[in-house]
Amino acid sequence: MKTFEQIADLERRYLLGTYARYPLVLTRGKGVFLYDLDDRRYLDFVSGIGVNALGHAHPRIVKTIREQAAKLIHVSNLYYHEYQGALAEKLCTLVSRPPAAAGSSEASMGACRAFFSNSGTEAIEGSIKLARLAGHRVGGEAKCRLLALEGSYHGRTFGALSLTGQDKHRKGFEPLLQEVTFVKRNDLEGLRAAVDDDTCAIVLEPIFGEGGIYECSVEFLGECRALADRHRAALIFDEIQCGLGRTGTILAFQAFGVAPDIVAIAKPIAAGLPLGAFIAKEEFANAISPGQHGTTFGGGPLACRVALEFLAIVEEEKLLDNVNKVGRYLNQELTAIAEKSPAAKEARGRGFIQGLNLEVPARPIVDDALAEGVLFNSTQDTVIRFLPPFLLEEKHVDKGMRVLKKLLKKKRKEAA
Ligand code: PMP
């Protein structure tokens, strides 16, 4: 087997320099654990930034991939296969009939249709293209303006980047789409002032992921809903990071009680295979015609069948109950750390999308946690972000928090 140095050196020589990777080569995983080249074990609080919700090497996912790979991996969207319509039906049912779960409300999208992409970013691109078509239909060419939130993250293609309210991602790539207005999260006045009849979409993450785990208030989401209705604009929720179970409800909007017109999802949906989707209410969905949007890979038989299996496992193994229970425990622990540790400020989020805002830089803590056999992740310089697999148990939280407390104490001592 190659050494760490050989692997890192090849990348240094041949890859675009886009990633500041941790010095770790991962070779295999099982459940909530990952293993490196020396077969050292790491407890995973990252899940591939929210992708590996079923942990690693889930036996049902492995079996499904094996079976389907031997039958049919790809067919062009020129043809039908068995699983794309079935997955769309399942997703449309989920957004329209929220399962009774702790904290869930009756927010429902009603009759819907889905489109499958290869990534979250593409799901956002498709969503805003659809909103433009629907907007033009009711308000002509002028109805093209998009509203997004400061501090948000929606992806890195030109459309998604134009909606991303963070200079660090936008810098160097201007000009972006010109028709975007940004308002502050939870700023009702700013929101009211920014939406008018030329607005075709309001796009937001109900819980900011990359932005540092900040929630939109129910009041703010409700006002977005009311304004979108009044001005016949599409309310688009980016649930790529916070959706599909992470909040303890299958869609985050069910926890907030406000339904969007279009919801974008991706990350965990095909258990690690690339798949994204946007799901649109019928009155928006019917604005598009054959030939106006499409993709080569999106919605193939392997990814769609695995996604159906993913959703079945989440239901049958009652994983949302676990996310709620262990998420509450994680939140208690993080809140206690925020109260007691001078190096920590605030615990935010819910379920398995949580963050701890620190008084000190977060990345060195994440670096040091590697030596302790724990994978954390940081965002926005001072936030440690927790996006664990839905299989995480309280004993794993205990291990993670032990390491975190030890490292926070160490940082305080170094700073003193
Ligand atoms: N929106 C949100 C909220 C995200 O968290 C991400 C990915 N971090 C994206 C969009 C982009 O998704 P992808 O990387 O799959 O294109």
Task: Summarize the structure in short.
The protein is built from 15 helices and 15 strands.
Q: Characteristics of this structure?
A:
15 strands; single chain; 15 helices; 416 residues; 7-stranded mixed β-sheet; binds 4'-deoxy-4'-aminopyridoxal-5'-phosphate; alpha/beta
What does this structure look like?
The protein has 416 residues and is of the alpha/beta class. 41% of the residues lie in helices and 17% in strands. The strands form three sheets. The chain has a seven-stranded mixed sheet with strand order 4-10-9-8-7-5-6, with helices on both faces. A four-stranded mixed sheet has the order 1-2-3-13. Strands 11-12-15-14 form a four-stranded antiparallel sheet, with helices on one face. Strand 14 and strand 15 form a beta hairpin. The chain starts with a helix and ends with a helix. The mean pLDDT is 96. The structure holds 4'-deoxy-4'-aminopyridoxal-5'-phosphate (PMP).
Describe how the helices and strands are arranged.
Layout lengths: L3 H11 L11 E5 L2 E4 L4 E4 L2 H4 L8 H13 L10 H15 L15 E6 L2 H20 L5 E5 L8 H6 L3 H4 L9 E4 L4 H7 L4 E6 L13 H13 L3 E5 L13 H5 L5 E4 L10 E6 H4 L15 H16 L2 H22 L3 E7 L2 E6 L4 H9 L2 E2 L1 E3 L3 E4 L7 H22 L1
Parallel strand pairs: 3-13, 5-6, 5-7, 7-8, 8-9
Antiparallel strand pairs: 1-2, 2-3, 4-10, 9-10, 11-12, 12-15, 14-15
4'-deoxy-4'-aminopyridoxal-5'-phosphate (PMP) binds next to helix 5.
Helical/strand content category? alpha/beta
Q: Can you summarize the main beta sheet?
A: 7 strands, mixed
Give the N-to-C terminal Cα separation: 43 Å
CATH architecture identity of the domain at 67-316: 3-Layer(aba) Sandwich
Average pLDDT, to the nearest integer? Answer: 96
- What is the multimeric organization of the chains shown? single chain
The strand count comes to 15
The strand line-up of the biggest sheet is 4-10-9-8-7-5-6
